[in-house]
Amino acid sequence: MRRRNGAASADVPEGGEQTLAPISRLEMVRQAARAHFAAHGYEAASMRDIAADAGIHIATLYFYCSTKEQLLFDVLKESFEQIQDSLREQIAAAGETYAARLAAGIALHVKLCAEKAFPTTFNRVDIQRLSDEHRAEYISMRDAYERELRDLISCGIGAGEFRAVDPKLTAFAIVGIGHTVGYWYRPDGPLTPEQIGAQYVDLILTSLQRPPAASP
Questions:
Q1: Mean pLDDT throughout 180-202?
Q2: What is the CA radius of gyration of the chain?
Q3: pLDDT above 90 for 136
Q4: Is the same domain home to 114 and 137?
Q5: Fewest CB atoms within 10 Å of the CB: 7, 44, 150, 151?
């Protein structure tokens, strides 16, 4: 398997056909598309380069997506589905306290933003390239994901685990942290995604702690 611009593709024997990669061809296309959209933006991303990184001809690429806009939406949707499913699994396995659940959610969010450049690296200009129908579906998925974190914060406040804060703004802050990590994280940097996530978990949970009760 070879890589260009961070996207995996199948080995191509000299003078022969491409060998079957461990991952599906569709996933290879989406990996390549995710890397190009994140690195260059929607307008500058080249469908020909995406096809080359996926190890296919440009004509074959359109078998997997009807348009460039459809490919952008497919990448966004797949990323959201993956991270939302993973978030729910991590929260369910984290424990009984809302602090433990929120910690698991923050750690996962930061990790996936770092490793997958999640849809975090797509800017507002790129999102505006989506059709009205696709943009509405994207916004619905984004809102549902943010709601998972917001509900944890609201329940934690209600249970007395967190101090009174605005759950919506706090959830936005958590999502924004992941977005920022998605921009600057590099695999050869000094910290792993897990170490970065652990530091942000400590920062956020410390900020949510209830102040000690005043002495009588």
A1: 92
A2: 20
A3: yes
A4: yes
A5: 44
Burial string for 59-78 (b: 16+ CB within 10 Å, else e) reads eebeebbeebeebbbbbbeb
Counted domains in the chain: 2
Which one-letter amino acid corresponds to residue 145?
Y
Rounded CA-CA distance 98/91 in Å is 9
Contacts of 182 (CB under 8 A, 6+ apart): 38, 113, 114, 117, 118, 120, 121
Of the candidates 21, 42, 64, which is a domain's last residue?
Answer: 64
Q: Does residue 134 lie in a domain region?
A: yes
pLDDT tens digits, one per residue of 49-67: 999 999 999 999 999 999 9
| 211 DSSP assignment | P
User: Could you please report the per-residue DSSP string of 13-66?
Assistant: -TTSPPPPPSS-HHHHHHHHHHHHHHHHHHHH--HHHHHHHTTS-HHHHHHH-S
Go through the chain and tell me how many residues it has: 216
Report if residue 213 sits inside a domain.
no
- Specify whether the CB–CB gap between 35 and 7 falls below 8 A: yes
Tokens representing residue 115 in the block: 């490793």
